[in-house]
Write a structure and sequence with these properties.
Helix content: 25-40%
CATH topology of the largest domain: Trna Endonuclease, Chain: A, domain 1
Shape: elongated
Structural class: alpha+beta
Largest sheet: 7 strands, mixed
Length: about 325
């Protein structure tokens, strides 16, 4: 399978989530049908065959007025038999009582389960899901088209919208920046961008929660309430890991971080700093990201006491490896 013609699971989640928001120049079929993001990556337990079984969907959308929700499982490749079996036994009532899906009347709540997949895997998905009553959405690339390929959608409005494939722009609107498998190399890129944004907004002191909210999503209000507890914890842990690493090496002197207090302070990139300082900071953050991505050793230059270097007024050329300015 040509990876250039497929989307990652996180891409598929963002395609769906973006269609739930009123974003200019993007399809908004879920928004127009009255659906809103209920949560993403939230884990919960149900009883199946006398045992507690954990369930976690990639994305759940809900329409309180229609008292109907849709849970999406996004697959970049094939499905997992055990996972499908768990989903197939779920009831609408369990999604409300155990999963925490909002409902205005438990007795009449309805629920669809949808599998979203790359069109290249169509034959596999059809075969793997044939015994289940799932909605199926295939996503093709170049151009990006989202098509309903499974059973009739319970919601008549959505069934109408998906009577023809939905044409989606080539650029995916990133609602959720982080997923369960996001590497630390991307975290440092997101953290550094968030720190620059804080400075531009005249904020010098920040907390772990400030960074987590900015790193996790593009939209205020989604973090932490719309994300699963495990994912929130992972986001916070990875932010701390890259900060603890960065302030000792590439980013030392630009920002400080107190692990016990879960807070930090902007230093060389504090509000009012020169644009050239931002550029240097971004370049160093990019270098750190590349180090994490390739699992390379730390440049010996960053093992020096950079605070003393700043105090002695050494120029920035002495702080940055040759060729980065």
């Amino acid at each position: 399978m040509d990876s250039r013609l497929t989307y990652l699971e996180q891409d598929l989640v963002n395609i769906l989530a973006s269609m739930t928001l009123n974003i200019a120049n993007y399809p908004k079929v879920f928004f127009e049908a009255g659906y809103r993001i209920e949560f993403t990556e939230r884990e919960f337990d149900v009883q199946q065959k006398g045992k507690d079984v954990e369930v976690k969907f990639d994305l759940v959308l809900n329409n309180l007025e229609k008292n109907h929700a849709i849970s999406f499982e996004c697959k970049s490749g094939k499905t997992e038999a055990k996972q499908l079996s768990k989903y197939g036994e779920l009831s609408p009532q369990e999604m409300v009582e155990n999963g925490g899906v909002s409902s205005n009347d438990l007795s009449t709540h309805t629920h669809d389960i949808a599998i979203v997949y790359n069109k290249n895997n169509h034959e596999y998905i059809i075969e793997e899901t044939k015994q289940y009553d799932f909605i199926l959405f295939s996503v093709s690339k170049e151009p990006t088209l989202i098509a309903s390929t499974g059973k009739t959608i319970y919601d008549d409005d959505l069934e109408f919208f998906f009577s023809q494939p939905i044409d989606y722009p080539s650029f995916i609107h990133e609602v959720f920046k982080i997923g369960a498998s996001t590497p630390k190399s991307k975290y440092i890129s997101l953290v550094s961008a968030s720190l620059v944004e804080l400075s531009l907004n005249d904020k010098e002191v920040f907390t772990l929660q400030d960074l987590a909210a900015s790193v996790a999503t593009t939209y205020p209000g989604l973090y932490p309430t719309k994300l699963g507890k495990r994912l929130c914890k992972e986001i916070e842990n990875k932010i701390e890991i890259v900060l603890n690493d960065g302030v000792q090496h590439e980013l030392k002197g630009f920002v400080s971080w107190d692990s016990k207090a879960k807070s930090g302070r902007l230093m060389r990139i504090k509000p009012g700093c020169k644009p050239s300082t931002f550029k240097t900071f971004r370049d160093l953050a990019q270098e750190m990201s590349e180090r994490l991505r390739t699992n390379s050793p730390i440049n010996p230059k960053y093992k020096t006491n950079r605070e003393k270097i700043f105090e002695s007024q050494v120029t920035i050329d002495d702080l940055v490896p040759e060729g980065q300015l």
